[in-house]
Design goal:
Largest sheet: 4 strands, antiparallel
CATH topology: Immunoglobulin-like
Strand order of the largest sheet: 1-3-8-6
Oligomer: single chain
Structural class: mainly beta
Distance between the termini: 74 Å
Number of domains: 1
CATH class: Mainly Beta
Radius of gyration: 19 Å
Length: 132
C-alpha cells in the first residue's frame, strides 16, 4: 500500500513539473502592461481592403506547447495558426487578419488558449484606423 502511495506521489510531482515547463514568447510584439495583451497595430488601412500581419512565436519550454483554441471579438478580425502543437524550442506563426469594412478607429481582440499555466490565455489587441 505504501509503495502505491509513493508511486502516486512521484507521478504527481513529475506531472507538476511537466505542466509548468511550457513558455511561450512573442519576440516581435510588446506586452501592454494595462491588460497584459500584445498589441498588433495595423496603422492606417484603406476601406474595403484586407490586411495581414504575421507574428512569430516560440516554445522556450522543455515540453510541448498546445494551443487548443482561438477566439475573436469581431467577425472582421481573426487569426490563423501555422501549428497548434509546438515541441520545445520550436517556432510557429500566427497570422492576424483584418478586413477594413467600416471607417474610423478600431480595436478588436483575438484570444488564444494554451496549456502553459503561466499563460493560459493570451490576448492580442488588433488596432488601427480605416480611412476611405
Amino acid at each position: 500500500m505504501n509503495r502505491y502511495l509513493l508511486m502516486l506521489l512521484c507521478l504527481g510531482i513529475c506531472g507538476t513539473f511537466t505542466l509548468t515547463a511550457q513558455t511561450i514568447i512573442f519576440p516581435d510584439l510588446e506586452k501592454n502592461p494595462e491588460d497584459k495583451s500584445f498589441t498588433c497595430d495595423f496603422g492606417e488601412l484603406v476601406l474595403d481592403t484586407r490586411a495581414e500581419r504575421v507574428v512569430k512565436f516560440k516554445n522556450t519550454g522543455d515540453v510541448p506547447l498546445i494551443i487548443p483554441y482561438m477566439k475573436r471579438s469581431w467577425s472582421y478580425a481573426w487569426g490563423k495558426l501555422s501549428k497548434e502543437i509546438l515541441l520545445p524550442e520550436e517556432e510557429a506563426e500566427l497570422t492576424i487578419i483584418f478586413e477594413a469594412k467600416y471607417t474610423g478607429p478600431f480595436t478588436k481582440y483575438i484570444t488564444i488558449g494554451t496549456n502553459d499555466p503561466k499563460n493560459e490565455t493570451i490576448r492580442f489587441r488588433v488596432k488601427g484606423v480605416v480611412v476611405e
